[in-house]
């Protein structure tokens, strides 16, 4: 078994990272501005931070565990949603983009310096575009392409820029998972 090779302190650290990641992702879901059909939340910033701080593998695993718990019905998503209906509803496409974004954020260089901070910010913008594109495509199947763009993509662009800047700035100062290479 994969965990049998880890020391008890390494297992505890892993458990703490996963627990804190799931708690942070859940809290970011509840930081919400109601909009129809998709609320504005802090989720994408925390998804990016999870991947960047924990690395690609652990960050992606944390996001997948959080989504798995939500799929099982725990009220971990925006507006306290959980269960299959949350994944089949208006926000399903965005949720699909979250583990992809966490993985790619974990692969971005975490070296210090303004050149790297600007690069990281640019990559985070692209990751927001990926999330919004997947969300918009999914939403367009429910409400039409024009309405999905007007209500599920365009209103989130400024927030994506702000959350990308916030995540890039925080990654520059936050400690990362020891041994994390992405």
Can you name the CATH architecture? Orthogonal Bundle
Give the CATH class: Mainly Alpha
Number of helices: 8
**Main sheet attributes: strand count, strand direction, barrel closure:** 2 strands, antiparallel
Strand order of the largest sheet: 1-2
Number of strands: 2
Measure the end-to-end span: 23 Å
Shape: globular
The CATH topology name reads Arp2/3 complex 21 kDa subunit ARPC3
Q: Structural class, judged by helices and strands? A: mainly alpha
**Element order: H for helix, E for strand:** HEEHHHHHHH
User: What share of residues are in beta strands?
Assistant: under 5%
Low-confidence stretches: none
Radius of gyration: 16 Å
- What's the pLDDT, averaged over the residues? 89
Helix content: 55-70%
Please, how many domains?
1
In a few lines, what is going on in this structure?
With 182 residues, the protein is an all-alpha fold. It has helices spanning 8-30, 43-54, 56-71, 84-88, 92-107, 114-143, 145-152, 157-173; strands spanning 32-33, 40-41.
SSE layout and pairing:
Blueprint: H1 8-30, E1 32-33, E2 40-41, H2 43-54, H3 56-71, H4 84-88, H5 92-107, H6 114-143, H7 145-152, H8 157-173
Helix pairs in contact: 1-2, 1-3, 2-3, 2-5, 2-8, 3-5, 5-6, 6-7, 6-8
């Amino acid at each position: 078994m994969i965990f049998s090779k880890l020391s008890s302190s390494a297992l505890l650290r892993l458990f703490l990272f996963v627990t804190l990641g799931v708690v942070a992702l859940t809290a970011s879901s509840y930081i919400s501005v109601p909009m129809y059909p998709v609320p504005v939340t802090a989720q994408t910033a925390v998804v990016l931070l999870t991947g960047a701080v924990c690395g690609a593998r652990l960050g992606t695993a944390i996001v997948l565990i959080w989504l798995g718990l939500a799929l099982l019905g725990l009220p971990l998503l925006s507006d306290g949603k959980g269960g299959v209906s949350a994944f089949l509803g208006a926000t399903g496409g965005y949720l699909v983009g979250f583990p992809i974004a966490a993985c790619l954020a974990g692969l971005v260089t975490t070296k210090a310096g303004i050149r790297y901070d600007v690069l990281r910010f640019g990559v985070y913008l692209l990751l927001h575009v990926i999330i919004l594109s997947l969300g918009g495509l999914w939403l367009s199947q429910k409400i039409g392409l024009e309405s999905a763009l007007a209500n599920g993509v365009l209103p989130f662009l400024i927030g994506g820029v702000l959350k990308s800047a916030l995540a890039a700035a925080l990654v520059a100062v936050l400690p990362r998972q020891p041994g994390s290479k992405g």
